[in-house]
Amino acid sequence: GTPMDAEFFTAWIGEAARAVRAEKDRLTRLDTAIGDGDHGVNLDRGLTAAAAALAERRPAAPGAVLALAGSTLIRKVGGASGPLYGTALREAGRALGEGAEVSPAELARALEAAVDGVRGLGAAAEGDKTMVDALAPAAGALARAVREGRDLAAALEAAASAAESGAEATVPMEARKGRASYLGPRSVGHEDPGAASGALLLRALHTVAVR
Ligand code: ADP
Ligand code: MG
Ligand code: MG
């Protein structure tokens, strides 16, 4: 299968940037309903900048790719999602260390580290109607699939599907973190924009793995 090397993770950021740009209006609409309407613009700007930084600096190891992408998101995105996704990527990069290639088990541990990073910074639990509701089920599904010995494509399909289901499951939730929480019960009935983008990022990872 596909080796998960620096090129693979660089391709992931590129595919994530493409997917977020294609879905920018939907993310903006979701954030207009329960936030300030900038989530699509924020992530588009951040991921486009991250892809450009990677093209320029060409880090040689997966951990360094994710570290640079994360730092770029933190620097370029003013909204809550910049530091949160930025921290997720940096923690994932740190978990991967300096190796030139990543195993499925290492990827699963890195995704768990990413979720822990988001939780550590934002203090959101599952059910609070945030990106955690997409990312945490994805990390769980990936770890389970790898433990069961599924191949990378199947494991990442399970992770992406779990993220998509998790994002859909935010619709009936009442937001308890971030701007949407200011709406209280009026946040019910809308998908969380960060959960929606989290699902896009996981789907992008599957897309590059099956290319
Ligand atoms: P802002 O709310 O500052 O405008 P964005 O619109 O880019 O930032 O991102 C909003 C998303 O960030 C939300 O939909 C939610 O998923 C996520 N988010 C906000 N606060 C938190 C938090 N404390 N923990 C986890 N995710 C959060
Ligand atoms: Mg916003
Ligand atoms: Mg904002």
Automatic annotation (TrEMBL):
Transmembrane segments: none annotated. This is Dihydroxyacetone kinase subunit DhaL. Residues 7-207 form the DhaL domain. Gene3D superfamilies: 1.25.40.340. It comes from the Bacteria. PANTHER family: TRIOKINASE/FMN CYCLASE, TRIOKINASE_FMN CYCLASE. It holds the Pfam family Dak2. Coiled coil: none annotated. The gene is dhaL. One of its GO terms (molecular function) is kinase activity. It comes from Planomonospora alba.
